[in-house]
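User: hey, got a sec? need Pmr5/Cas1p GDSL/SGNH-like acyl-esterase family protein folded
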Amino acid sequence: MATNTRETTHQKKKHFSTLFPLLSLLTFTSIFFLLSQIRNPSSSSSSSSSIKAFSSIHNFQINNNNRHDSCDYSNGKWIYDESRVSRYDETCKEIFKGWNCIKGNKLNGREVVKWRWKGKGCDGVEQFDVVRFLTSHAHSSIGFVGDSLNRNMFVSLFCTLRSSISDGQVKKWRPAGADRGFTFLTYNLTIAYHRTNLLARYGRWSASENGGALESLGFKEGYRVDVDVLDSTWAQAASFHDILIFNTGHWWWAPSKFDPVKSPMLFFKKGQPVIPPLRPDQGLDMVLEHMIPYVEERARPGAIKFFRTQSPRHFEGGDWDQGGSCQRDRPLSAQQVEKLFSVKNNGTNVEVRLVNEHLDKALKGSGFVVLNITYLSEFRADAHPASAGGKKHDDCMHWCLPGITDTWNDLFVEHLNSIKHRS
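Assistant: Yep! Here you go:
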């Protein structure tokens, strides 16, 4: 009987030893998903309370050169303007096929641009003067650094500027590391897009046969993210461009890209794994903590550094791979916005406000100018490509072109003019 008891005990220990790696992964997974359950105590179900909850992110005011007051574009409403037209059309060759809602036969493809954002206490956002912009920023360079949503904005700016340039006066030219770029020869103005999903360097990781700290916790594969090493695609951008526009966020809250069990994000610092393993949001904080001073130390004298807030997704009825769609044909109401994006509701699109909380904390006290596009974009469930062009899954993350990213650029130029006016 005693022998049987010892054998049973030995079997239990062996069984537990076998399960330990799995238990470690499950624990890490649970922590990851608990992140989405966290709610900021200052959040509220009303739109005004939502703005207060992200006050330093949402509250940006732009000095009006023609008046003594200022406009707060963080709060307002969309107004339909039948006469409003885009400065470029669907023939702009740089528009990615999946974003060309007019060519893709989206039912409201031509209506998307007819809505104008009116900030609180001021007139609607005006379309910037293209020739004045080109003249004012001659002999300079503008760099967009970030994921495909920053490419969305970059293409919008390119197409807008290209509309006033004659053939033969635009040359393709990519600064070091850039995914794409163009120079407007008459003005010697270059704009470029540097693709980077996490800002930091990352790549596939597999367990070593010799073991290690991560292997001892049961990790077999994943993605190594070096929080203190910049992605090579933009490492030189900070010292090259006169104006920089950064973004990050969409890949950090993406279980479909970084599965917390099958392919988790594994963070490294100074070449060594961070133990205990970090949640993705903690990794984001560490990347921003390294990236922001890096840019400020290496930026060109007088360079203007923007960080764009998170662009909202509008999946309803599930995520992109769960039958989610965005088939609305007009902007949401304020009540619908809160229902879709409130942290309290913890819906499919909650990432937008969670990311902004981390950006808010990281950017405080820095020399970055916050380009706030979140709240005004949360209304525009009608402005995504959705199923245009016969997509298998609705694209409720990127934006139609022409479309709302044109307004982002109008605000970007307003900011530049305001900074120039103050200086």
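Quick note: The chain has one domain: 38-193+236-249+295-422. Let me know if you need anything else on Pmr5/Cas1p GDSL/SGNH-like acyl-esterase family protein.
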